Amino acid sequence: MPIEPLRFLYDIQEFMEAGGPVVRLLMLLAIGLWAMIFERLLFYRRVMPGMLAEIRAAWDGRTDHTSWHAQKIKRRFLAEAQRQIRGPLPMIRAFVALCPLVGLLGTVTGMIQVFDVMAVLGTGNAREMASGVSAATLPTLAGMVLALSGMYPIARFQGILDKETRRLRDHMNLA
Q1: At what angle are helices 89-121 and 126-174 packed, to 10 degrees?
Q2: Across the chain, where does the E strand assignment appear?
Q3: Are 89 and 158 in contact (CB under 8 A)?
Q4: pLDDT, mean of residues 41-52
Q5: Distance CA 3, CA 106 (A)
Q6: Percentage of the chain with pLDDT > 90?
Q7: Of 67, 127, 135, 162, whose CB neighbour count within 10 A is largest?
Q8: From CA 109, how far away is CA 21, in angstroms rounded?
Q9: What is the C-alpha to C-alpha distance for residues 8 and 162, in angstroms, rounded to an integer?
Q10: To the nearest whole number, what is the mean pLDDT of the chain?
């Protein structure tokens, strides 16, 4: 059963309104996180193979592979490849770690809302208290889901970094 695009957008808007301003902040974090993830995917598919081929060709084109100077050049090639393959991986990790913390901030602000309702109206207004509890739990949920959704790409990107660096190092040791 296909999802109606307008209904889906309405549900997202409703979720953001129910969760309060912290959910809006989490939406911005999600956009930034997934923009970096998609950038890495495009880099690995389109840019990295050519970059690694250039580094291998530059190393293979050298006549000297064993001198002290050649070893320093090899280390520079490896470090540059690692830096480019890693790209924004540390920033992606930071965003993933930040998401649950921002979600907890939403929990705190939502509970403050509950306590404000209790202070003004007492404990007799269950509807208003439930609204505050909802505003407290939705940002936590959103932060955790967002963090979990970023865990697989981090592991995958780290694996690619390790594998390609190892393959390049092995190629340079055999050449």
Answers
A1: 170
A2: none
A3: yes
A4: 97
A5: 29
A6: 67
A7: 135
A8: 10
A9: 39
A10: 90
Q: How far apart are CA 173 and CA 55, in angstroms?
A: 13
Task: Please identify which residue in the block is written with the tokens 């060709």.
Answer: 57
Burial bucket for residue 85 (CB in 10 Å: 0-12, 13-18, 19+)? buried
For the chain, helix (H) and strand (E) counts, in that order, are: 6, 0
Give the CA dihedral 110, 112, 115, 117, nearest 10 degrees: -70
pLDDT number for residue 171 = 95
- What confidence score (pLDDT) does residue 45 get? 97
d(CA 64, CA 71) in angstroms, rounded, equals 9
Distance from the first to the final alpha carbon of the chain: 56
Mean pLDDT of 115-120: 78
